[in-house]
Specification:
There is one protein chain. This protein is mainly beta. The chain contains 1 helix and 11 strands; from the N terminus they run βαββββββββββ. The strands form 3 sheets. Strands 1, 2, 5, 6, 7, 8 and 9 form a 7-stranded antiparallel β-sheet that branches. A hairpin with a 4-residue loop joins strand 10 and strand 11. It is globular. The mean pLDDT is about 85.
C-alpha cells in the first residue's frame, strides 16, 4: 500500500512544524461538572485561571451525550477534506481525549478535541474522532481534565489548506 498524498489548494508553508515555548507552564487538574457541555466547562475552567490559550487532556470519565465526527474527502470543494456526518453516542465512556484551546478568528474561545469513546464501562464498542465540545455533555461520573496554561493555540487563516487552523502561541501563565 502506497502513502496517500493530499494536494492542498494553496502554497506550501515553509514551516512544516510550528512550535511555541514559555518559561513556565502551569498545570491544572480538575473534574468537569456533570450536566455541562465540554465547551462550557472547559471555557469556565480556563477563564478561572486567566487563560486565553492552552492545551488539555481529558483523562477519562463519562458523557451523558457524546457527538463526534471524522474527516472525509471533499472532492468537490476547495479543501481536500471536510467533516463527515455527526455520530451520536450516549451515554458513553470518555476513554481519553486531547485538545487545543484558544481564540477563534473573532476572538471567541474555541477548542479542537480528538477523543476515544466507548459505549459503556464493561464491553462497549469503541469510537474515535473529532469530539463536538458544545454537544458533548458531562455525565454523572464527571470527566477528569488536565489543563496546560502558558502555551496554547490561536486560530489563524491558513492559505495552504484554505482552513482556519489552530497554530501554537506562547502566552504568559497566570500568576
Amino acid at each position: 500500500m502506497s502513502a496517500r498524498h493530499l494536494q492542498q489548494p494553496g502554497p506550501t508553508r515553509p514551516d512544516r512544524v510550528s512550535t511555541a515555548t514559555t518559561a513556565r507552564a502551569q498545570h491544572v487538574l480538575a473534574y468537569l461538572p456533570a450536566g455541562q457541555t465540554l465547551y462550557e466547562s472547559l471555557v469556565t475552567l480556563f477563564e478561572a485561571h486567566g487563560a486565553r490559550h492552552g492545551a488539555f487532556e481529558l483523562l477519562g470519565g463519562d458523557l451523558s451525550t457524546a457527538l463526534y465526527m471524522t474527516s472525509v474527502p471533499n472532492p468537490g470543494g476547495l479543501q481536500v477534506a471536510t467533516y463527515g456526518p455527526r455520530t451520536v453516542v450516549g451515554p458513553a465512556v470518555l476513554v481519553r481525549a486531547t485538545g487545543s484551546y484558544g481564540p477563534d478568528l473573532a476572538g471567541k474561545p474555541m477548542m479542537h478535541v480528538h477523543g476515544i469513546l466507548a459505549e459503556n464501562w464493561t464491553d462497549g464498542r469503541a469510537h474515535a474522532g473529532h469530539l463536538v465540545p458544545d454537544s458533548c455533555v458531562v455525565g454523572p461520573r464527571r470527566v477528569r481534565a488536565l489543563l496546560t496554561i502558558g502555551v496554547g493555540f490561536a486560530q489563524i487563516a491558513d492559505a495552504e489548506t484554505a482552513f482556519p487552523l489552530l497554530f501554537p502561541v506562547a502566552a504568559a501563565p497566570s500568576p
